[in-house]
Amino acid sequence: MFGDLFEEDFSFISNNHYGKGKKSKPRESEPPAPRDFTNLSGIKNQGGTCYLNSLLQTLLFTPEFRGEALFSLGPEELGTLDDSRKPDAKVRIIPLQLQRLFAQLLLLDQQAASTSDLTESFGWSSHEEMRQHDVQELNRILFSALETSLVGTSGHDLINRLYHGTVVNQIVCKECKNVSERQEDFLDLTVAVKGVAGLEEALWNMYVEEEYFENDNLYRCGACDKLVEASKSAKLRKLPPFLTISLLRFNFDFEKCERYKETSCYTFPIQINLKPFCEQTEMDDSEYMYELFSVIIHKGGCYGGHYHVYIRDVDELGNWQLQEEEDSLIEEKAFRDTENTKETENPLAVLKGILSEEEVKQIPVDQLGQKLLEKKGVSWNKKYRKQYGALRKYLQNHPQIFQLSPDGNKVSLKETHKLLFKLDSHGQNLLTPSQKNDVQWNCEKKPPRPRAASAGCHWFDLNDSKVQPIKEKDIEKQFQGKESAYMLFYRKAQLKRPPEARGNPRYQIPEHLLNEMNAANTELQKKRAECDSANNGIDLHLHLSSCYKFHNGALHPSLSWKESVVDLTIDRRKTLGDLRQAVFQMLESWEGDMVLSMAKPLPAGLHLYQVLDGDELTLDGIGLADGADIFVWNGKEVGGTKVLTGPEHEPVVLSVLRLAEHNEGGKGQHFSEAQHVCSCSTSLGQLHSALAPAGGIILKNGSGADPEAKNWEVFREEDMKETVRSVGLRDGCSVLILDSHDQ
Ligand SMILES: [Zn+2]
């Protein structure tokens, strides 16, 4: 399939052979997840396409490729995807799909974009064709395919403009000084890893070291027409704006007869001066300065593995914030906030003040305690210990401000206003030229210009769907090992970004794509809102007081249950105020105060609990769950009857047994049974006087609710002050009432 892409035909610029254009995909029930806090989009792994994703993200974060080159090609040159179905329409599918994917990555609010339309435009329709190609190979395939599909448009030289460079190979005859020259083109440079410490050394070996033809190995000079001594060298002649470097990590071991991955340490600088490797060196140094902006990392062995990419966000499109930086910012803010309070109230400010006045950087923790007493007249143990704990512990708990020695005995102040980014000095770790070579080492010795801490120098790790902020220093972790840098992308330091591009993902995106993305985002928002309220909706049962009567200790509907209850579905994240508003709207004729009380159907009837309070709180926050019962009333009475609420007034249904009047033949005892509802806070004395006539006694069934069991216990006189609840009488419990003549 790659073969097809290299062929210089035009078959894949129309859809006759490959892409089918826009497809209507089945609607998924769950909309894709939105972007996370980085505000950058990842790319889905379609099964072994992580190499493609890494490369596409690199191209996306090459704003000159994305904007100036790709987005500048309009429909008049590329055609449109909608036209791709029309016969004979000249539609250039690959650049169109790439534009569309880039627009999605920049603007569509989803966690990860899909590349299936793009890979289809490559002609990769089956799973097999997408499997783990080599990313270096893919880079060339992609460029070649793009170049071919842009023939005849203003973008025909897009790839050359940005990536094309030349190397000149020269052989100088020692006798006639004739120079034989051969120029080579490149879109990327392949450099050795084996036996080389890093990029500079590899470039040094390639473009500074000379090879000599001498002794047995002489060179045939065309001018002298004989075998002569000669020197052979190579130099970079034309530097492209974007320099892509492929590391030869995969080698062949001829002894073992197998491929292996070179995992040795291979350093590369954040900034590099290419002047020493160039043919022409008379230009200003700044012309030779390059800055790293992407590192494709390969993890695994030489037969497969995983790719991800570290990318510098040149246009500051992402939201870069590391957790620890966040913590320190919060700490600093808390510190500033408390600084203004009374001077000795805040131990943080006091201790910081003492330490900053110290001449020596580090002092023993014990001494800090003494100085606190001397300078501020307060003892840690007396003033702060109770609230803040031991001094040493307190210092430990504020690592953003205090630095303790490893043994914990000494303390110093940390620099709180540390620079987020300190420039690495790798740019200067250049190797000394080898002894036998007398070429001057032209590299600048002064430190590289520091970049502003926040100007487009934030790095992200883009790992398929996942995007995470990283520190520039993390790049060093990819110098060596099973997981290590595999491709490096440098941009010419002189390339400056226009201010209007900064933080502006819409910059240079053509109008029709902006509109498409806006519409897609609106649709996404709508679907998310629908899905959201479906996931967060709760059903509430509203019981209206006008449909209830209070009798026999509880509320009972005057109509059927069904008619007294109104169901309301509401988002649990709405506030109680919203709920009240919704109820008011439902009950247009409601007058006066409206109180919403939690209600619960009990055996005795509906009982009311706490009044819902705090209109600014969310329904979730006040604990309203799906299916909750709510009573809507004036908060005082129902149908003229005062209603007691709360767990302390829960009605209890008791089964009241009395000996049957006709107790035939004395064979066993027969009972008559009746239900009695009383409040659980009713005292036994009250219950007794309500149920038993004068002289009668009340007994409880010691074996629970089973009336056939005969463990009747008499309530004692002192029990009469106890309540129904405290003596354990619950719904369904039986009490036996004996009249005086039954005893
Ligand atoms: Zn010669």
UniProtKB/TrEMBL annotation:
<feature type="domain" description="USP">
    <location>
        <begin position="41"/>
        <end position="493"/>
    </location>
</feature>
<protein>
    <recommendedName>
        <fullName>Ubiquitin carboxyl-terminal hydrolase</fullName>
        <ecNumber>3.4.19.12</ecNumber>
    </recommendedName>
</protein>
<dbReference type="InterPro" id="IPR028889">
    <property type="entry name" value="USP"/>
</dbReference>
<comment type="similarity">
    <text>Belongs to the peptidase C19 family.</text>
</comment>
<dbReference type="GO" id="GO:0006508">
    <property type="term" value="P:proteolysis"/>
</dbReference>
<keyword id="KW-0788">Thiol protease</keyword>
<dbReference type="GO" id="GO:0005829">
    <property type="term" value="C:cytosol"/>
</dbReference>
<dbReference type="GO" id="GO:0004843">
    <property type="term" value="F:cysteine-type deubiquitinase activity"/>
</dbReference>
<dbReference type="InterPro" id="IPR038765">
    <property type="entry name" value="Papain-like_cys_pep_sf"/>
</dbReference>
<keyword id="KW-0833">Ubl conjugation pathway</keyword>
<keyword id="KW-0645">Protease</keyword>
<keyword id="KW-0378">Hydrolase</keyword>
<dbReference type="InterPro" id="IPR018200">
    <property type="entry name" value="USP_CS"/>
</dbReference>
<dbReference type="InterPro" id="IPR001394">
    <property type="entry name" value="Peptidase_C19_UCH"/>
</dbReference>
<feature type="region of interest" description="Disordered">
    <location>
        <begin position="17"/>
        <end position="41"/>
    </location>
</feature>
<dbReference type="GO" id="GO:0016579">
    <property type="term" value="P:protein deubiquitination"/>
</dbReference>
<dbReference type="GO" id="GO:0005634">
    <property type="term" value="C:nucleus"/>
</dbReference>
<dbReference type="Pfam" id="PF00443">
    <property type="entry name" value="UCH"/>
</dbReference>
<dbReference type="InterPro" id="IPR050164">
    <property type="entry name" value="Peptidase_C19"/>
</dbReference>
